[in-house]
Design brief:
140 residues; mainly alpha
Length: 140
């Protein structure tokens, strides 16, 4: 349906389509949904960055400052026009990660070079977790 409306109006702009087809209620819906999506993205990015920084520095970071830093950085990058390089970024990821995953899969399933080591460490961890009386004792 949205493709038909876009062709009828002669535009691919979501804001124009919603304002022409649903009026101001559609426009408010588009704006609020964009705010919500960006809010969720900022929240998950700040949690991910905080976890990475805590793992690297062994120090607790304040979420509020990380969120502000990421929000300002994202706003500046969008003002500078980073969206124009988004397709290049996706192509880079598509070229980088499939060969790495392919090598790992071939090594594990076809060559089986490290499979015995992985199986041995798995058994060793299982034995370590089970105590002498069958109780679970976690290392640490």
């Amino acid at each position: 349906m949205s493709i038909i409306v876009a062709h009828a109006l002669g535009t691919a702009d979501v804001v124009t389509i919603m304002s022409h087809s649903a009026g101001w209620i559609g426009l408010v819906t588009v704006i609020l949904s964009a705010i919500k999506v960006n809010d969720v993205n900022l929240y998950s990015a700040s949690l991910g960055l905080a976890t990475a920084l805590e793992g690297l520095s062994r120090r607790k970071w304040r979420y509020r400052w990380l969120t502000l830093l990421l929000g300002l950085t994202g706003t500046m990058l969008s003002v500078l026009g980073i969206i124009g390089h988004f397709v290049d970024f996706l192509i880079f990821l598509g070229v980088l990660f499939p060969p790495i995953a392919g090598i790992m899969l071939v090594d594990y399933y076809v060559l089986r070079t490290h499979r015995t080591l992985l199986d041995a460490t798995r058994c060793q961890m299982r034995r370590r977790r089970l105590g002498s009386a069958g109780r679970v004792s976690w290392p640490g």
